[in-house]
Amino acid sequence: MRHFFGTTLLLCLACVFLVSSCKAQTMEEPKEPDEFFYIFLCFGQSNMVGKGEITEADKVVDKSFLSLSTLDGPDGRKVGQWRLAVPPLCRYNSGMSLVDFFGRTMRKNYPDNVRIGVVYVAVDGCAIDLFDKDGYKNYTDTITRRWLLNEIAAYGGNPYKRMVDMAKKAQKYGVIRGILFHQGETDAYGDRWLQKVKKIYGDLMSDLHLDSARVPLIAGEAVNEDQNGVCAHINPVINRLPEVIPNCYVVSSKGCEAASDRVHFTTQGYRTLGTRYGIKMLKSMGFEISDGYEETLGNSTTVAVPDKELDVVATLDSKGMMHAVSATPIEKVEYVSFSGEKLKTIVLGGVKEVDVDTRLYPNEYPLVIVFHGEDGSSVSISVTK
């Protein structure tokens, strides 16, 4: 290993797209999960289902953005089978949703060896009780609306169980990295709703053997008051979710275009909201992203590397994990190509020990790992295969 100094550029990774049919794709179950296949669970009510108009251009999807079907459909989707994430995602007769744009935002900001997968369960007009594994039956027994009963029946009468069953299947292929949630228009009126969301999140952590510190919940506001949203009054309650779920982040719906019913979003509204979900998730994973980036994460900026060197001792194991120990706090770590292009930034906030996975960019060797100290010092270590 040797030191490397110079200027770095913030580069937004290019996204390569292709067009494909919606038919289920055959994927052999791997011997072990692919740690670079990032799975996200998505659940909620109608704005999670998605009501946006779908154009032909929207059907152009990156080949590494996939969806695990939780419903059968006449378009070829089959429960438990992976398919290219061509909209509609929730079910065959839904529309564009925030998840479409979340997935595209995530995909275009990861290297080519990372795939994005979503597991999607949502029901129009449902209360939060529908996702309570212990109390859902008490709720469904009170429902008289036939269309709502039909939507629930499509999930075997228990949407929470379908979500968990499909999430377990997805875990055989990849790693669950986060949960997207959009619900509340029906019943987000106070502490009772907050506690129910907390319970459901806790049940998912337990049933899927997940670590809540590593799997954030990203929630979104209802149509905002700046769009005369019918349910805008629930947004203060939604914004209290981080009070009861520590690893929870709330996405603002301000400026997200509303449909004429002022309850749902237009495709453009879902585009803005879903991109914000993606940015919030990336930030929770340690990506350094300036406020204001929504359509893309890329402005080119030049960063001068200071002269003062950070005192870091780093060891690299046979699997490509670098363990670094510093005498002074490390503020952030950067992945930089040998030509000086910044590939990724992880903000640490001042730690003296960190593990860095050098395998994220297999086509960038020799890869440069730059450690930055809180005092402005830095040190760069290049890694070869």
pLDDT average, as an integer?
Answer: 87
Spans where pLDDT lies below 50 across 5 or more residues: 1-23, 295-307
Biggest sheet architecture: 7 strands, mixed
Q: Which structural class should the secondary elements be placed in?
A: alpha/beta
Q: Can you write the helix and strand succession as a string?
A: EEEHEEEHEHHHEHEHHEHEEEEEE
Number of helices: 9
Describe the fold and architecture:
The protein is of the alpha/beta class. Helix content is 22%, strand content 26%. It is built from 9 helices and 16 strands. It has helices at 46-49, 98-107, 136-140, 146-154, 159-171, 191-207, 235-238, 241-244, 267-284, and strands spanning 8-10, 17-19, 37-44, 60-62, 65-68, 82-84, 115-122, 175-182, 217-220, 248-251, 302-303, 312-316, 321-336, 341-357, 367-373, 378-383. The strands form 3 sheets. Strands 1, 11, 12, 13, 14, 15 and 16 form a 7-stranded mixed beta sheet that branches. It has a 7-stranded mixed beta sheet with strand order 6-5-7-3-8-9-10, sandwiched between helices. Strands 2-4 form a two-stranded antiparallel sheet. A hairpin with a 4-residue loop joins strand 15 and strand 16. Helix 2 (98-107) packs across helix 9. The chain is globular, with a radius of gyration of 22 Å. Residues 1-23 and 295-307 have low confidence and may be disordered.
